[in-house]
Design brief:
about 270 residues, alpha+beta, five-stranded antiparallel β-sheet, 11 strands, elongated, DNA-binding
DNA sequence: ACACGTGTTATGCG
DNA sequence: TCGCATAACACGTG
């Protein structure tokens, strides 16, 4: 389910198949997913327009509509269980990969929480069982940190600004500082960098910061190339009884930043500080 | 029946 | 006001 690589897949789906199609109907009746907009507000803003761009920063996407006189952007966030599905009038379904299916079959739109209907009969849907995804107009994307895929060394150092006792895992998952890293990607990055998830950011050494940036880039590049976070090395070893695939020490688990975390008991050691 | 969850955000506390 | 921890959100799955 969606972290940066999956969201990028969804963005590409919209870019390939959702742009330059006239919007003739909008279902924005799910007030939880479309909050804070009242029903009809998003519909009114988009009727008669076409989406013309599909952008992404971190896990957030937004599409510019060719509305006049004022520009409108449609913000899309997949949450934990959201997926973009585009179906043509003949029922052919184009999706963003297999990152969330859980037995769902093409044509099963029970959990369509938001729908754009196009003039040719096609539809773009946010399919989202848990309804933790979100649709809104003009999302404040500037509040997000730099995209984790594109972040520069200077931006990365700034995001790790010292003077904080926060766990490093919480810091790299803070979307306001670095955008795009979720729970699974964070575990992979920290495992690659051989850093304990609960290590205080203020205690990270220069070499550790360097390893962290390299691991971030490598993990994201791999996940993008392989089609999602499922392809990352450590994911199959996030389970009771597993051994680290590098040194075969037992994997440990615990809650860090309120999230289930897994790390190698030998290579990722919590040091005081 | 019950706990869990790959994300975000409101709330409370020091 | 800031940083941080926690609960809440919603609902399918094991």
């Amino acid at each position: 389910m969606p972290e940066l690589p999956e969201v990028e897949s969804a963005r590409a789906v919209i870019e390939r198949n959702g742009l330059r199609r006239r919007i003739v109907d909008v279902d924005d009746s799910d007030t939880f997913v479309c909050r804070p907009h009242p029903p009809g507000e998003i519909r009114h803003a988009l009727l008669g327009t076409e989406l013309v761009t599909a952008m992404r920063r971190g896990k957030s996407m937004w599409c510019r509509a060719n509305s006049v006189p004022e520009a409108v952007t449609l913000g899309i966030h997949l949450g934990m269980s959201g997926k973009i599905v585009i179906a043509d009038s003949d029922g052919t379904e184009i999706d963003g990969g297999d990152y969330w299916e859980r037995g769902r079959q093409p044509g099963d739109y029970r959990w369509a929480r938001f729908t754009l209907a196009f003039a040719d009969g096609g539809r773009l849907m946010l399919v989202d069982p848990r309804r933790l995804g979100r649709i809104r107009l003009n999302p404040p994307v500037d509040e997000l940190g730099p995209d984790a895929q594109l972040i520069t060394p200077a931006q990365f150092r700034a995001a790790l600004a010292a003077g904080s006792t926060a766990p490093v895992k919480a810091r790299i998952m803070d979307q306001h500082r670095i955008a795009g890293i979720g729970n699974l990607l964070a575990d992979e990055i920290l495992w690659r960098a051989r850093i304990h998830p609960a290590q205080a950011v203020s205690s990270l050494t220069g070499p550790e910061q360097g390893r962290l940036l390299r691991a971030t880039r490598d993990a994201i590049r791999t996940a993008l190339r392989e089609g999602g976070v499922h392809a990352l090395t450590i994911i199959p070893y996030r389970r009771r009884g597993a051994a680290c695939p590098r040194d075969h020490a037992p994997m440990r688990t615990g809650a860090v930043d309120g999230r289930t975390s897994w790390w190698c008991s030998a290579e990722q050691v919590l040091v005081p500080g």
